C-alpha cells in the first residue's frame, strides 16, 4: 500500500531520518514543523545572512549536523515539507494545523510524532524575574542569534546540557559567572558503569568540564539553589545557593540559565489517546511505545526525544527504526539486519540514558523544600503555598483537580514549565509518590492560537 | 546596563529600522524581535499578574512569555519572529484590559 498518507510531525534528527527512510521505500511523507527551518533543536539552523561555520556552531557535532542538513536538502523537493506550520490538535485521521494565521486540516493514515523535547524546570524562589531563561533557551540565543542572555551568566540546574551550554558560552566570549550543579560528584561516580556504555560521549563530557576549569569558571557540585536575587523592575541581580559543603554563597549576575535536562513534548500523542508510561529512572511520564516506536493507538508512532529522552544520536536511529516499523505494518519488505542494527544501537543509548538519569537526577526533593512564597506557575504567578492549600484545604491530590482549583498549568505555557514541579509539590503535600498524583492531560490547542486565524480549504 | 542581551558575533549584517512603543530602534537583519528589543532594553513587556517586567524564558516558542503586538493588533511571539524594516511594535496588548488566560 504505497499510497498510505503518512505525516511526520517534527523536522529534527528523528523526523528527517524517518522521512528519508520512508522516501527510500517509495513513500512520500508530509513533514510538518513549526520552525521555519529544519534541524530541530540540536541541529537548529541559523537564519540566512549569518556566517558562522559548522565547527563554530555545532562544535564536536559539526559533521553530524552537516550530514543531517545535507540529507534534508536532498529530500526537501521530493517530500511534502511544510515548515512554519504548527499542529495544534488532532482527531483520528486528521490533524489541525495553522500556518501564518491560516488554519488547515491534513488527513493521515499513519502519523509519526517526532516532536522533540523542551527544558525540564524546577522552580526556585525568584525564578520569575526577567533575566532567568531556560538552559536550552540560553543555547538558542547563542546558536541562532549569536547573543548571550546577559552580561554575566550563571548556569544552574543539572544534566549534561548544563556543561555543554556553559562551555559554548565561554568559547563564544561570554562571561560565565558560575556553573552550579545540584548533583554531587558521588552520583557521577556511581553512574560510571552505565555511562561507560558510550565511552566517547563520556570522554567529551569530561573534556567540557576540563575546559570550564581551564577558563577559571567557578564550578560547584552538589549545590542547593536558594534564590534568584533581584527585583521586579531590574530583574535578575544574582543567585544565592548552598554549596556542597553547606555554606551559603552568592554570585552576582544579570542572567540565569536554569534547567534539569529535558521533558518530552507528548501533547499530540496524548490527544490521540496513546497510553503513557511512568519512567522511574527520570521520574516522568512519556508515551508508551514498543521498542520500534509503535504507540498503543494503531497508526500512531513516536520517535526521538518526543518519545523517550535519549539524545540526538538515538533520535536518528529511532527515526529510521520507526519508519521501518511503519513499513512492516504496511506489509512492505524490511531488512531485519537493518532493524536489528538500530535496535542494538538504541539499547546501548538506553543504558547511557539510565546512567545520565542516575548521575544528574531530577531534584524532586527541592519541590518539597520550596518556600510557600516561591512561584510555581511563572505564567500566572501562582505560588507553592497556593498550590499546597488546594491539597490541604480542598483535598485536591490529583494534578488535574489541583489545576482546576489553583490554575497551575492553565497559563500560557500550558504546563510545560510548571507541571512536573507542580506534581512534585502536590505529591509532597499529600504524602504520596509523584506517579500517584497523575499527570496533566494534554489539551488542544497545544499552543495558544491567535484569534485572527482564518480557515482555508485543505 | 542598557541592553539585557549581549551580541557576541555576526555583527556585520545590514541594519533594519523599526519602531518600538513609538521610539525608533535599529536592529540587524535576521534578528528576532526579542533580540532587537533586548539589545536595547531589559524587558519585553509587563506581566499581567504582578508588577514584574518580563523578558521571555524559553526562546523556542514553548512558554509564550514573549508576546508583543504590531500596532494593527497582530500578536507576535518575539522569540520566533524576525525584524522587518518599518515594523511598528507595541509591547502592551492593544485592545485588552483584562488578563489573558491561555
Ligand atoms: C533547546 C534545546 C537544546 C538542545 N541542545 C542539545 C545539544 O546541544 N546537544 C545535544 O546532544 N542535545 C541537545 N538537546 C537535546 C536534543 O533535543 C535532542 O537530542 C535532539 O534534537 C532530539 O531530536 P528530535 O528529532 O527527537 O527532536 P527535535 O530536534 O527537538 O525536533 C522536534 C521538532 O518538532 C517540532 N514540533 C514539535 N511539536 C510540534 C507541533 N505541535 N507542530 C509542529 N512542529 C512541532 C519542533 O519545532 C522541532 O523542530 C537540546 C534540546 C533542547 C530542547
Ligand atoms: S520566549 Fe518562550 S515562547 Fe518566546
UniProtKB/TrEMBL annotation, chain A:
One of its GO terms (molecular function) is oxidoreductase activity. Residues 375-427 form the BFD-like [2Fe-2S]-binding domain. Residues 5-318 form the FAD/NAD(P)-binding domain. InterPro entries: BFD-like_2Fe2S-bd_dom, BFD-like_2Fe2S-bd_dom_sf, FAD/NAD-bd_sf, FAD/NAD-binding_dom, Metab_Enz_Cyan_OpOx_G3PDH, Opine_Oxase_asu/HCN_bsu. It comes from the Bacteria. The keyword Membrane does not apply. The keyword Oxidoreductase applies. Keywords: Oxidoreductase. Pfam families: Fer2_BFD, Pyr_redox_2. This is FAD/NAD(P)-binding oxidoreductase. It comes from Pseudomonas cedrina subsp. cedrina. The lineage of its organism: Bacteria, Pseudomonadati, Pseudomonadota, Gammaproteobacteria, Pseudomonadales.
UniProtKB/TrEMBL annotation, chain B:
The keyword Oxidoreductase applies. The keyword Oxidoreductase applies. Keywords: Oxidoreductase. InterPro entries: 2Fe-2S-bd_N, 2Fe-2S_ferredoxin-like_sf. GO terms for molecular function: iron-sulfur cluster binding; oxidoreductase activity. Pfam families: Fer2_4. This is NAD(FAD)-dependent dehydrogenase. It comes from Pseudomonas cedrina subsp. cedrina.
Amino acid at each position: 500500500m504505497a499510497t498510505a498518507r503518512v505525516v511526520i510531525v517534527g523536522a529534527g534528527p528523528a523526523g528527517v531520518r524517518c522521512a528519508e527512510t520512508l522516501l527510500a521505500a517509495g513513500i512520500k511523507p508530509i513533514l510538518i514543523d513549526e520552525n521555519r527551518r529544519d534541524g530541530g533543536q540540536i541541529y537548529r539552523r541559523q537564519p540566512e545572512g549569518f556566517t558562522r561555520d559548522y565547527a563554530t556552531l555545532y562544535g564536536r557535532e559539526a559533521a553530524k549536523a552537516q550530514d543531517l542538513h545535507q540529507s534534508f536538502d536532498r529530500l526537501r523537493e521530493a517530500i511534502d515539507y511544510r515548515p512554519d506550520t504548527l499542529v495544534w490538535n488532532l482527531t483520528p485521521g486528521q490533524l489541525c494545523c495553522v500556518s501564518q494565521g491560516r488554519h488547515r486540516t491534513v488527513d493521515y493514515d499513519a502519523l509519526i510524532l517526532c516532536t522533540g523535547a523542551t527544558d525540564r524546570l524546577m522552580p526556585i524562589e525568584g525564578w520569575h524575574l526577567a533575566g532567568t531563561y531556560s538552559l536550552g533557551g540560553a543555547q538558542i540565543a547563542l546558536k541562532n542569534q549569536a547573543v548571550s542572555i546577559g552580561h554575566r551568566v550563571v548556569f544552574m540546574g543539572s544534566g549534561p546540557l548544563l556543561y555543554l551550554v556553559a562551555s559554548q558560552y565561554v568559547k563564544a566570549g561570554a562571561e560565565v559567572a558560575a556553573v552550579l550543579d545540584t548533583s554531587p560528584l558521588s552520583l557521577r561516580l556511581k553512574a560510571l558503569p552505565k555511562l561507560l556504555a558510550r565511552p566517547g560521549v563520556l570522554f567529551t563530557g569530561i573534556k567540557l568540564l576540563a575546559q570550564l576549569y581551564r577558563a577559571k569558571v567557578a564550578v560547584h557540585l552538589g549545590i542547593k539553589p536558594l534564590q534568584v536575587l533581584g527585583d521586579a523592575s531590574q530583574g535578575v541581580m544574582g543567585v544565592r545557593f548552598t554549596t556542597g559543603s553547606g555554606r551559603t554563597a552568592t554570585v552576582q549576575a544579570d542572567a540565569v540559565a536554569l534547567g534539569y535536562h529535558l521533558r518530552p513534548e507528548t501533547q499530540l500523542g496524548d490527544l490521540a489517546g496513546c497510553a503513557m508510561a511512568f519512567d522511574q529512572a527520570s521520574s516522568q511520564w512519556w508515551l508508551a511505545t514498543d521498542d520500534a516506536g509503535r504507540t498503543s493507538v494503531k497508526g500512531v508512532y513516536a520517535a526521538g526525544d518526543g518519545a523517550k529522552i535519549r539524545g540526538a544520536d538515538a533520535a536518528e536511529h529511532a527515526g529510521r527504526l520507526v519508519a521501518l516499523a511503519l513499513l512492516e505494518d504496511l506489509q512492505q519488505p524490511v531488512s531485519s539486519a537493518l532493524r536489528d542494527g538500530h535496535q542494538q544501537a538504541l539499547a546501548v543509548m538506553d543504558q547511557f540514558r539510565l546512567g545520565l538519569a542516575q548521575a544528574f537526577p531530577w531534584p524532586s526533593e527541592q519541590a518539597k523544600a520550596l518556600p510557600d512564597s516561591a512561584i510555581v506557575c511563572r505564567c500566572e504567578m501562582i505560588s507553592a503555598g497556593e498550590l499546597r492549600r488546594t491539597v490541604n484545604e480542598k483535598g485536591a491530590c490529583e494534578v488535574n483537580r489541583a489545576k482546576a482549583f489553583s490554575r497551575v498549568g492553565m497559563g500560557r505555557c500550558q504546563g510545560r514549565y510548571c507541571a512536573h514541579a507542580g506534581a512534585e509539590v502536590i505529591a509532597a503535600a499529600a504524602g504520596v509518590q509523584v506517579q500517584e498524583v497523575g499527570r496533566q492531560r494534554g489539551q488542544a490547542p497545544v499552543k495558544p492560537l491567535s484569534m485572527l486565524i482564518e480557515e482555508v480549504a485543505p | 546596563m542598557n541592553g539585557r542581551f549581549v551580541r557576541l558575533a555576526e555583527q556585520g549584517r545590514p541594519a533594519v529600522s523599526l519602531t518600538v512603543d513609538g521610539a525608533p530602534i535599529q536592529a540587524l537583519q535576521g534578528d528576532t524581535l526579542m533580540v532587537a528589543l533586548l539589545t536595547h532594553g531589559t524587558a519585553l513587556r509587563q506581566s499581567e499578574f504582578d508588577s514584574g517586567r518580563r523578558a521571555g524564558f524559553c526562546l523556542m516558542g514553548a512558554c509564550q512569555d514573549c508576546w508583543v503586538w504590531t500596532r494593527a493588533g497582530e500578536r507576535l511571539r518575539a522569540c520566533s519572529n524576525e525584524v522587518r524594516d518599518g515594523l511598528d511594535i507595541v509591547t502592551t496588548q492593544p485592545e485588552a484590559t483584562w488578563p489573558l488566560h491561555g
